[in-house]
Design goal:
mainly alpha, 3-stranded antiparallel beta sheet, 72% helix, globular
Length: 387
């Protein structure tokens, strides 16, 4: 154990943030899976928390391994990964498992599944970081810079869109922000925004004209949009239960394990786990969780200011922004600032591939910060020798 600790490098604050998020995750998952345990596991309430602990533990292994790899190697690794992710997305559309009325995952042996959108999200962000770095000399050009960058964004987001609109929209928005940071011509970014608004408009029109005999996914989104714009008790059950959980939490909450809304709130262990955290830990606990994500982003920005290479800066920003953006979306849904999206809370919600790819993402950030630390140590040594 001591040998492993000595080999851990990178931003120590980020390590601490991830550990604290994991603690919140274990406590919240244990508290929110009681109903699930009685329904499927004959009241074995330890089953899901032990399973979740093993998933988190494997996530830390992935994070540790990812942070050992020099970040420049990821440029080539994820270029290859994109050519794997796109066929997997197509395969998911054809034979994917039906989860929450949408084909989001591929079946695996031993009753496991693999959500291909998690791989596609990380892969696209890394690929964009690579392209933006390579195209910096003529980044304002439409044909040689914007088109090669735009095509993979449209392909990946387009393949995710049919069964996971919120993930596609978030990934599209993240890509635009990354392109803006990468100095793509603002006029071309506005073109992309126009395309996004156009697709969103078509989606809303189709949803509002859908009836009960339409595709189940479209019907679900119609109900979500209508319940957010014009709340009605029968259409916004999830949001109402989430509001009750948040309102009953008060300042200090009901304390761990004392949630009552976990028995009424659908998916309290994933989509609405933040509501359970607010109910049990109150405003203080919720603020602390939000603060942890903000600290993660702040430390990422600090790494960006110190890394000398453009690829590392794009890499850290894209990955960190994506994680924190998803966290804010999840928490925004829980407090009814946004319509229901089905996005998990990174590193807190119960899950498999989501936690593992989040772990890899943080490991990549730590890999970059490790190189920053090495550079600073080298500068200090040179300064010491010079004196």
């Amino acid at each position: 154990m001591t040998a492993i600790i000595n080999k851990i490098r990178g931003d120590k604050v980020i390590w601490i943030v991830v550990i604290l998020l994991s603690v919140f995750s274990l406590l919240a998952v244990y508290s929110s899976t009681g109903t699930l345990a009685y329904k499927y596991r004959a009241g074995n309430t330890e089953y899901y928390v032990i399973k979740h602990f093993m998933i988190l533990l494997f996530g830390f292994v992935l994070m540790y391994l990812a942070h050992l790899i020099k970040y420049t190697y990821y440029s080539r690794i994820f270029q290859i990964a994109l050519y794997i992710a796109v066929p997997l997305l197509i395969l998911t559309l054809l034979i994917g498992l039906n989860l929450n009325e949408a084909k989001r995952a591929l079946p695996l042996p031993f009753n496991l599944s693999f959500q291909t959108s998690d791989l596609a999200k990380l892969t696209l962000i890394m690929y964009l970081a690579r392209l933006l770095t390579k195209k910096q000399d003529h980044i304002k050009d439409f044909k040689s810079a914007f088109v090669p960058i735009m095509i993979p964004v449209l392909i990946v987001c387009g393949l995710i869109l049919p069964n996971n609109f919120s993930t596609a929209a978030m990934l599209f928005a993240t890509s635009l922000v990354l392109m803006f940071i990468g100095r793509i011509n603002m006029k071309y970014i506005l073109y992309m925004i126009a395309i996004g608004v156009f697709v969103l408009g078509i989606f809303v029109i189709i949803a509002y004209n859908a009836d009960e005999n339409s595709d189940s996914r479209i019907w679900t989104w119609k109900n979500r949009i209508e319940s957010f714009v014009n709340p009605a008790e029968e259409d916004s059950y999830q949001v109402e239960q989430s509001k009750i959980a948040i309102a009953s939490g008060g300042i200090i909450g009901k304390l761990p394990g004392n949630s009552t809304q976990r028995n009424f709130l659908p998916h309290p262990y994933s989509d609405f786990i933040f509501a359970i955290i607010v109910e049990e830990y109150g405003l203080l606990g919720a603020t602390f969780v939000v603060l942890l994500y903000l600290i993660l982003f702040f430390r990422a920005v600090k790494i960006i200011t110190k890394i000398p290479r453009t690829f590392g800066a794009f890499l850290v920003f894209g990955v960190a922004f994506s994680l924190v953006f998803q966290a804010m979306i999840n928490m925004g849904v829980a407090v009814n600032l946004l319509p229901v999206t089905g996005q998990p809370l990174p590193f807190i919600s119960m899950g498999g591939t989501s936690i593992w790819f989040t772990s890899i993402s943080i490991g990549i950030i730590l890999s970059v910060s490790k190189e920053v630390d090495k550079r600073e140590e080298q500068i200090q040594q040179e300064a010491y020798v010079g004196t």
